């Protein structure tokens, strides 16, 4: 909206319309395509180094959410940024959402007048120059004074800052925060101070926000509207609904079956599966590579893991699928969701390649159902198949049925992985 596309917002995610994500081909203001999670710091660091090599002056700012920091790539990028010491700003948008209920119930980073004042002090030019001058003096003195001063500085900032702030310092990023993301005056003040500093290396600004703020406002302003009547007996269901119900049946019969879910969004029916079998369900969030190797470890331990990953995100796990699962012939069951064209989610989120890159693996059994009944049978097949890895794909669309009946799955007859065509 701020980059000249306000008049086209009604075309969002429609044919010939706006993409729904930043796109380099759509606007000069879109510096990078941001439809792939956890990659902003890596891309920003590349741009910063390119700027340095070309001797230009652009200021690089990247934004990453706390949910994206579950993936290893974000930490790999931060570590590399600290080593290269190139000027860039990383804004951590911390909405305080967590996959783990115990963390949600615990203490959270508090925002008060003191923390706001400390954040402004940390970002001030005078404080930064004093800190750099102190570093220079201790280096000249020698005799380990520089290392000692660095430890004192780290401990002091760790005591004043929130829990975990020293992690970013260890990675080589100068930590500033926490900052109240809804206090625009304070936020602008900190960002202006950070932008005014030269030769500062990478900086991380920790911004606290409330992710459900807009939703709360919308609920308060909700206006009732007349909806078209829907037949009482019509209950549109998705392929995921059938997958979950089949998994429930199989898990009730075999307590060794566990479910591993990876991705940024979990459908409501999967949450019901999580509630029904809390000890057999693991949601790792946007850590798809970990999900695959974690599933391989579960298999080595004698369990029967079903690893649920969207097709577009399975692409980033291919090394783990090949080395940690297929080459070891471990019976990991891959449930590949959102397969095929993803419609309004755009080309980046479409799962168009999984059949090709899974079928070429020597020990992988690949299945694709033509309807919900075959999907249920494939869940049963995967549950009873222990000769190696097996996968099945299914789309995200609704199933055109008006009943809620689901039968028990029947294992399909087929050849072993060595003899598959």
From TrEMBL:
Keyword field: Magnesium, Thiamine pyrophosphate, Transferase
SMART domains, per database record: Transket_pyr (SM00861)
Single Gene Ontology BP annotation: terpenoid biosynthetic process
Keyword check for Transferase: yes
Keyword Transferase: yes
Cofactor(s) recorded in Swiss-Prot or TrEMBL: Mg(2+); thiamine diphosphate
Domain named Transketolase-like pyrimidine-binding: residues: 237-402
Gene Ontology MF terms in the entry: 1-deoxy-D-xylulose-5-phosphate synthase activity
Subunit structure: Homodimer.
Name of protein: Transketolase-like pyrimidine-binding domain-containing protein
Species this chain originates from: Kalanchoe fedtschenkoi
């Amino acid at each position: 909206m701020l980059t000249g596309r306000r008049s086209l917002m009604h075309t969002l995610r429609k044919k010939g319309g706006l993409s729904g994500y930043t796109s380099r081909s759509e606007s000069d203001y879109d510096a990078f395509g941001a439809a792939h999670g956890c990659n902003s710091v890596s891309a920003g660091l590349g741009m910063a180094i390119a700027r340095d090599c070309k001797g230009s002056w652009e200021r690089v700012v990247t934004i990453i959410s706390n949910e994206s920091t579950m993936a290893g790539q974000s930490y790999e990028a931060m570590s590399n940024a600290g080593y290269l010491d190139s000027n860039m700003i990383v804004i951590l948008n911390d909405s305080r959402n967590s996959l783990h209920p115990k963390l949600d119930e615990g203490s959270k980073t508090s925002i008060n007048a003191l923390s706001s004042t400390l954040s402004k002090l940390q970002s001030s030019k005078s404080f930064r120059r004093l800190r750099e001058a102190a570093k220079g003096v201790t280096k000249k003195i020698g005799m380990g004074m520089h290392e000692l001063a660095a430890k004192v500085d780290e401990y002091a900032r760790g005591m004043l800052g929130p829990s975990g702030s020293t992690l970013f310092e260890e990675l080589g990023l100068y930590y500033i925060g926490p900052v109240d993301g809804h206090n625009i005056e304070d936020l602008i003040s900190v960002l202006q101070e950070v932008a005014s500093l030269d030769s500062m290396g990478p900086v991380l600004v920790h911004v606290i926000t409330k992710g459900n703020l807009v939703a709360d406002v919308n609920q308060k302003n909700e206006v009732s509207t007349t909806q078209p009547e829907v037949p009482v007996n019509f209950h549109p269901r998705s392929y995921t609904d059938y997958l979950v119900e089949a998994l429930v049946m199989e898990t009730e019969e075999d307590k060794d079956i566990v479910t591993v879910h990876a991705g940024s969004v979990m459908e409501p029916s999967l949450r019901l599966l999580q509630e029904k079998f809390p000890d057999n369900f693991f949601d790792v969030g946007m850590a798809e590579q970990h999900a695959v190797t974690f599933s391989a470890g579960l298999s080595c331990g004698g369990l029967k893991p079903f690893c649920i990953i969207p097709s577009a995100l399975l692409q980033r796990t291919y090394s783990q699928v090949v080395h940690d699962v297929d080459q070891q012939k471990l019976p990991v069951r891959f449930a590949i969701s959102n397969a095929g064209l993803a419609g309004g989610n755009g080309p980046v989120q479409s799962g168009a390649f999984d059949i090709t890159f899974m079928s070429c693996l020597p020990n992988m059994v690949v299945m694709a159902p033509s309807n919900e009944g075959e999907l249920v049978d494939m869940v049963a097949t995967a549950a009873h198949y222990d000769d190696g890895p097996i996968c099945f794909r299914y789309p995200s669309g609704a199933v055109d049925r008006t009943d809620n009946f689901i039968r028990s799955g029947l294992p399909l007859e087929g050849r072993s992985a060595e003899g598959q065509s």
